[in-house]
Amino acid sequence: MxxxxxxxxxxxxxxxxxxxxxxxxxxIVVPIISVFKISFSEVGRxxxxxxxxxxxxxxxxxxxxxxxxxxxxxxxxxxxxxxxSTVIGFILAMVLNxxxxxxxxxxxxxxxxxxxxxxxxxxxxxxxxxxxYGSLNVLLKKLxxxxxxxxxxxxxxxxxxxxxxxxxxxxxxxxxxxxLSGLQGIDAALYESAAVDGAGFWxxxxxxxxxxxxxxxxxxxxxxxxxxxxxxxxVWTISKGAPADQTHxxxxxxxxxxxxxxxxxxxxxxxxxxxxxxxxxxxxxxIMSLRGEGxx
Amino acid sequence: xxxxxxxxxxxxxxxxxIFLCIVILYPYFVMFITALKxxxxxxAIDLILPEVWRWSNFAEIxxxxxxxxxxxxxxxxxxxxxxxxxxxxxxxxxxxxxxxFKGKGIFMGAVIMSQMFSPVVLLVGIYKMxxxxxxxNSILGLILLNAAFNQAFAIWLLRGTFVSISPEMEQAAKIxxxxxxxxxxxxxxxxxxxxxxxxxxFVFINSWNxxxxxxxxxxxxxxxxxxxxxxxFYGFNFIQWQYLFATSxxxxxxxxxxxxxxxxHLVAGLTSGGVKG
Amino acid sequence: MKKFLSMxxxxxxxxxxxxxxxxxxxxxxSDESGNxxxxxxxxxxxxxxxxxxxxxxxxxxxxxxxxDLNIEIVSWNDIYEVVNTRISTQEQPDILNISGFADYxxxxxxxxxxxxxxxxxxxxxVPSFWESNAIDGTxxxxxxxxxxxxLFCNMDLLNEAGIESVPxxxxxxxxxxxxxxxxxxxEIVPWGLDISTDEGQAxxxxxxxxxxxxxxxxxxxxxxxxxxxxxxxEYIQNLIDSGxxxxxxxxxxxxxxxxxFSAGTLAMMIGPMNMVAADSTVNxxxxxxxxxxxxxxxxxxxxxxxxxxxGDARTEAITKFFDAFYEVETYSDxxxxxxxxxxxxxASANLAENAEKYIVGGTEDTAGNSEYFATFCxxxxxxxxxxxxxxxxxxxxxxxxxxxxxxxxxxxxxxxxLDNLQAEVAE
Lengths: 296, 277, 427
What we know:
Chain B has 277 residues and is mainly α.
């Protein structure tokens, strides 16, 4: 019996993991393998897989100037959206952590962008910033802030900036709530004793608040990097990469390659490249967090 | 002096907060107003508010397209995915938080890695696999996929919750003769409820808002979730902004309400998930 | 032991949930009883496409025992994606309604039309349409419907701005745009332009053809960097730079432009004949596109995929399907219903006489009466079509959109961009 028990205790954890593993392997790993396979295959425009062709797809992708623009955009997009969302979200959390009249309402309001489907957000923002009939121009003109309509999305840069704005708009509430949850765990006594020691706002912020909410910030940052990097509906709904593929991120670029241009092989190659980039980021994160644990 | 500064701070705080609320609510205001406009006012550039408030738009959407069906589908997909993700996630998170075994680190790494691929990137592969098991164009297929793509997040949050709870109570229960499973259900889960609810809501909302997989996988109108379904108003020759936004609002409200209901738990859940994550 | 068992049970339950709840796979082809199921994908042409095909399905199945139709209506947003993924997984439909077929021919996926089209039906197609789907003498697809693009002008706006008649030349267009801009400022957009990723190739066709250029030369070889094409693209650029166009031509598709035109806030645009909403009160005139007066004809196709395993029963069922669909009453009804032009001779003749008869039970989107069909059916043979039968078409299509967007966003000049595209395509 005891031998049996021992064997059992070795196997048991794996049984507990099994449902989860099964689910993820069938639904995620299998498709990943097939994407890798496709990235090394020649694929006909109608989607027919014609056989192995080495790194041909990758070479083709690297030859496209649009790919390099896209890569740059993806970094700008990820850093801008995650970075600004984190700053805005953090400040907001600090504010919402204060006691003030109407705090509950504000908290409720902050939930809105988080709870709305990205497609819906993208469509509404596209409608708002349209220069010819969009409500932003109409409103600003009525208020007398502008004399004639402003073309908000006239250049690739301004279009992309708006897309980043929508990205930030939908991302910061998550940061806010993560930080809020971290802030709630902080003992008020810490601040009181710091105040007694004569610590000002900034020194309290850097000495107490930041170190203590760091774990929350790490969670939100890591998850946001992944979500934002892979975010599809905003850019696709608003610009589809136009003009001339200057506003793509990797995900929309590969979608266009695959479904508008019929180049599934190259699209798969771009997927793999995106995967590699994220994997590198993840390893950096893991190394850093392991080292962090070691320091403790 | 101190009191004076406090007053000034308060004003600044309110200015900031009010400004923020306006910015956040502005798109919803536009959605609401547009949803109430008549089709003919859609492109009129001197109108902020509708001339005629067409409340009937909200009634008409249900006839203009099978919107109710889309809602039911979204409910089924999000509900099913949530249940499945939690059922699979709880045992995994439990093992990760309470047991020692070989490959734990690898598994955690793999879980994070599985988040690296967005479903969009995998579309071709996903479609292929779903066809192989005959689950393309079915609600069940979407349930499985949403559950799988939310698995990592569910495990992460749940594990954090479990780790933050001391194992002593379960051990005590075990000594009293409870099995591991019973101890988990009877002792741990009730204590971990806030974290579990947070996870539930998260998965539900992610699945409710999912768009790309459903867009590709579902071709029959009867199985479309609301995010894909609203495309009918963005259809071939004309865009029915008023219906599009009316439906969008209807799709958003339940999620917001859900969020509001769990707001307290949400904050608590994120803490436990976050700090020990 | 109990622990282990209970754990096993949970695992087994989840596993069985995962594996055991597979849906029904729709079988295409014929089963033992001789029943044939045809999987059919139809593009969504309007809000009520679904309803029409549902009725057709019921009528057809009642009349043809043993043939099951499985008709799916897919929106234009998703159709290429849906079809491509199906093909890559060998799940292609039996019959597909889409725009463009050369890629499928290249990959050897289609059946030649003569194998399934009855002689009567073949003789009934308007010859230019029938032939437009041929590659090297073999016809691979059937024309399902056609549409024709013209210049639409809001006459009230033009008159108010002092322009008496529809612009005839490209210079007239500039004059009219300036007049409208001077008169109305922000309120009215003078000229609608769509060089979006969705359909920017149409704009290229309108301008290139009407400046005397085009996609191919007289021999049918690609001629994308001709002097005329350069002039055309520069003209588009000039329209934008002068502030005559809608502000977001890169992302505005035809649809919001058509809506704006119908609502009276856009003065002129080139669009399909059924573009003005039925309930619009705009006083408009449709005219030839300025310049060379070449109209763009758009003709979508129906095609049949090969199925090596299926026997003659499938082919026979397909023949019956097409005979039923193109039957003059049914087909005329569909054309009026969707507001497009027929590709068969008897339906053209029929609609030119009694289109009104079919409007009964039609929808808000149906445009048209006999006069309208008579006019446009007469114009149609003179329309030019995209060179869809050429294998490089998809590259060229995306290429010209890219050129327009590059030039109009100031990345390169028209000559360089078109030279590059020509070099790429000729490669």
